Amino acid sequence: MSRSSMNSVSEGLSPYRQFRNLLLGGLTGLFFLFAVSPLLLIIYVAWSQGRSALSWNFISTVPSGFPLGTQGGILNGIVGSLVLVVIASSLSVPVGVWAGLYLWQDGKSRQAGLVRLLSDLLLGVPSVVWGIVGFYVFSTSTGMGFHWGFSAMAGGLTLGFIMVPIVTRVTEQALRDVPMSFIEGAYALGATRWQTMRSIALPGAMAGIGTGILLGILNVLGQTAPLVFTNYYNTGLPSSLIGSQGSVGDLAMQIFIYVHEPSQLLHVKAMAAALVLLAIVLVLDIGIRLMTWGSRKIAGRIG
User: Fold this and answer.
1) Contact predicate 61/53, CB 8 Å
2) What is the dihedral of CA 131, 136, 142, 147, to 10 degrees?
3) Cα(274)–Cα(243) distance, rounded to whole angstroms?
C-alpha cells in the first residue's frame, strides 16, 4: 500500500480512531526505547570508560606487566573465547538440531515427551552446577572421567552441554512454524521423510535454527562459573586443548578478573574488553544470519 493510500485511509477514520492510532503508535515507540535502553546503557558506559584503552596493540597482544594486565592487551581472551565457542558448537549444534528434528517428527510419542521434559529441566540447571559436573567428568585427575585437567576441551564441552537444550527447543519451535501444508504437499507428491526434512522443513526453519544457535553462543560467551571449574584462565595463547597446557583465555573471565583488581587501569581495560566482546557478538550475529541465508539458498537449489 502506497503512502498516499495510507494517508487517505487514515483521513477516512473518525477522530477517535485517529487519536487511538497515534496513541498506540507512540506507546509502541516508547516501549521499544524502554526495551533497548539497557543495551544502550551498557554500550554507553563501556564506551565512555573504556574507549581510551582501545587500540590495535590492545587486541593484538597478550597481557603482561605488574599487576598482570596493566601492559599488553586481550589477544588471549579473544582467541580463547573463539576456541571455546567452536568446541561448544561442535557438540551442541549437531545434537541440538537432531534432537529438535526428533521432537518435531515424533512430538506426540511418550519418548519425545520424556526428551522434551529433560530438555526443559536442563534449561533450568544453574551454570555453576554444570561447572561442577564438567569438573568431575572432564577435569579431575581422580575417579572416572577423561582426566583432561583445566583445559579448553573440558571447558568447551561443558559449555556445549549448556547450549544443547537451547538449540533443541528453538529448533523444534522453528520447525513447528513451517506451514504444515508444505509438509503435507511434499508427502502427497511422494517425497520421503528425509527428503521432506532436507528440502522443505530445514530450509523453512533455517532462520529460526540460526537464531537458536546464536542464542546458545551468546549464552556461553558470557559464562564464567563453568570455566572456573573446567578451564579457569590462561594469560597466554593456547598450545594444546587438553592437559596441563590446555587452558585458554576467555574474555568474560578476563573482564571478571580485571574488575576485581584494585588497579584503575585494569578497570578501564575491562570496559574496553567489554566493547570488544560486544563487537564479537555483533560479528557472530551477522555471520550466522549470512550463513543461514546462504544455506537456505543452497537447500532451495538442491530441492
Assistant:
1) no
2) -80
3) 29
pLDDT tens digit sequence for 213-241 = 988 998 999 899 999 999 989 999 988 89
Three-state SS for 179? Answer: coil
Distance CA(26)–CA(22), nearest Å, equals 6
CA–CA separation, 82 vs 280, rounded Å? 9
Residues 6+ apart with CB under 8 A from 16: none
**What pLDDT is stored for residue 292 in this prediction?**
75
Bridge partners of residue 71, in order along the sequence = 64
**Residue 235 to residues 201, 250, 263: CA-CA distances in angstroms?**
45, 9, 17
**What are the pLDDT digits (tens) for 37-58?**
998 998 999 999 999 999 999 9
Banded model confidence at residue 191, pLDDT cuts 50, 70, 90: confident
Q: Is-contact 139 148, C-beta < 8 A?
A: yes
What is the phi/psi pair of residue 174, to 5°?
-65, -40
* 3-state secondary structure (DSSP) of residue 139: helix
Burial of 151 (0-12, 13-18, 19+ CB in 10 A): buried
